[in-house]
Structure formats: C-alpha cells, structure tokens
Amino acid sequence: MREHLEAIFAAGLDRVNPYKMITRHVNVQNGQLIVAMENYERSVNLDDYNRILVLGAGKASAPMAKAFEEILGDRIEKGLVCVKYGHTEPLERVEVVEAGHPIPDENGVHAAKRIADLASEADAETLVINCISGGGSALLPSPMDERVSGGLASLSLVDKQRVTEALLRCGADITEINCVRKHISGMKGGRLLQLMHPARSLNFILSDVIGDDLGSIASGVTSHDETTFSDALAIIDRYELRGDIPANVLTILELGAQGRIPETPGAGDPALATADNILIGTNRQALLAAAARARELGYQVQALTAQLGGEARHVAKVLADIAKDATSCDMFLKKPVCLITGGESVVTLQGNGRGGRNQEMALAFLHELSRWRHGRDQVHFLAASTDGNDGPTDAAGAFADERALLSYHELQGETIHESLKNNDSYNFFERIGALFKTGPTNTNVCDLQMVLIV
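The structure corresponding to this sequence follows.
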C-alpha cells in the first residue's frame, strides 16, 4: 500500500514538473516566442528586443530557467535565479544562487540585490523572463529602507528573520505571512515590476498557495497588490505579535498605514501594462493527475478538495473520521477507495520538536487510528509536500498505517500524544521508519494527502 501511495504521489509531481510544462508549451517559431498554456496563449516577436534576461526565485526556478535556456539558447544575455539550498540544476547562461528557506539568509539578500540591479538595467528594448515559484518570498529578502520626513526607517536581515519566525510559529497561513512580507520588502508586492519598468516581462508562475492568487505566490513580486500596510498591521495584532517582532518592523508598518511610505503598486500601476503573468501549474492539476494514477491502480477515487487548509492536526481528525466511515460502509464508493485532498495546512507551534505540517498531520492521523477498535488495518495514509521538504526537514512527509502502529508498539520512547504535544513528528516517524523522503523535487504546488481504504 505504501508503494501505491508513493506511485500516486509521483504522478501528481510529474504533472507539475516545471521543466516539462514549459518545454511542452513554449517554443520559438520564425523568430516568435510562442506560449500556449492551458489558460494563456501569446506570441512575442523576439526581434522587438535587443536583449533577454532570465530572472527568478523559488524552489522550482532552476528547472524553469533550464527550460528557457533550452528554448532560447544564446538569445539569453544573462540571468540569475535564487533557489533553496539543494534545489539546483546545471545551467549555462543563467546563474544559480542557493539561499535560506523558510528563514531568509545573507545569500538571499545578496541575490535579491543583484536581481534588483539587473531588473533596474532593463529598458523598453529588454524582454525579461521571470521564473517564479513558491519559496520566492524567503529567497528574495530585500529589507525595506525608506527615508521618511527627513529620517530613515530601515530594516535588517535579522529584523526580517525575526518576523518570519514569529509568523511561522503563530500559525498564520501563507497569505497572511506574505501580506506582512510585502510591506517590509523592497521587491515584493509588485515592487519588482516597478524596478523592471518599462521592460516587457513574461512571468511564468508555479502556484504554491490555495486558490492560486497571483498576489500571494512568492508574495506577488510581479503582480499588483490588493493588501495594505493596515492589513499587515491587523495580522500582527490578530496573532498578538507586537511583542515578538522588532520595533523597526512596527515603525515601517505604522508609517505605511499613515501614508508616509508609498503603498505597494495597485491594479492601476503603469508597470502592469508591460507585464504578463502566466500560471503554469497548480495543486489542482497535481491532484487530478494523482487521482488518474489511483484509478489506473484499481481504486475507486474521490478527490475531495484542492483547497484544504487549517490546523494540521484538526485536518487529520476530519480525514480520519471520513476514512472510518469508509471502512464500515460504502459511504463514498465501494472498496478499494482512494480519497485525495490537496492544499496547505498550518501548525501552531507549542513545543520545540522537529517536523513539518505534513508529518504533524500524519502523526495526528496515526493518533486517531490508534484509538480505533476495528478497521484500522484497512487504512493507509500519506501526507507529503510536493517540494520534497516538509518544514525544516529532509522528509517530504510521513505514512500513517497499521504498520507504523506495530513499529511504534515495539519501541520505547515518547508516546504519540507526547510527540504531538512537542511538535516532534519527524523524530517519532524516524524512529519507526515511516518518514517519506523524496529529496528536493524542484517543483512546489503545496501538499497532497491520500487515504487508501482496502
């Protein structure tokens, strides 16, 4: 059953392989760059431009840049993409810089400055190809530095690190985290577009957010922003973070809310007129491909949602309750059944253990299974991140099934309840051999969760 879960997950990954998606749907014919995506078609005359730059950031930006090197060859003058450590590809004309994620580091700061410099060099005869994917927010840390009323309100990398850590710990979702990031950044929330203007840009975007809001993916570096400084302050207050973030950050947000720092570009900004945002892959596409593979393996499939959110352990209980119904009666479909969901949950940290949202979900699911008196041997669960890194770990996720419970009962150590309380899912699953490791996948479209009932 674990082999089936892995095969179903792999089919979802293959569908959102960014290199394959770009090379299948973008090509050059008679001097025209032809883009024919599912919901976007455009032809760009390359003779209208005297230089082409390839820029980008995110866990999947290296394979995206590799695709454009293959398509455009020596038409590319130069470029730079910033990726998470280990998420690299061999490139010839585009430089790859590795940096910290989810907590930004100095490598990311230097990469962001160099990308900003390249963007600022672009003119009306420059075509910029941007390769944007999830992770781009942390990988393009450009701390804001604003002169206000004769004074200087500025942020450091440490300020941004502390804000990121506080937002990750409190359970804020990715949209809320990115709203704050946009308003303390010199590049996010569309500010990269302003740096590139008046250059023409084609921005190829791989979505890692529920609902595929272009303003949230990588904090909307090439999109207009519908949020405000006041919205960012409201998020800080919602999670009672004023005492946990640097005073400089609060100063920036408060000055912005007072109108003393320019807002992020809105829908009418002139820089938008020369930019095309092209969505190339989503969690929904991965989920549907996974569902198709499950059918090939002989399962009756029910795809429940591609917008799963909320606290990971609460989601796990709901999925376990659905699975319990499916074991006792044909509430959905006749067995064997595969239930699939996609999205991105959150974890509100209570302890100092190690793990990620998918491992925590699997551990909470296992906790529910351990309480069943009947039917648990029929249920097999996998929760995994499509980028191959669940939280700050080398695992994509974990399995929860009878095999995991048997291994758990043979070992001494923390109980499931204690591991949950300490947010220590990684060490728990490592002890029982139920971690799911893929290595960096070089794609990123949120998470997939699969339940097999046999």
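The longest strand covers residues 76-84.
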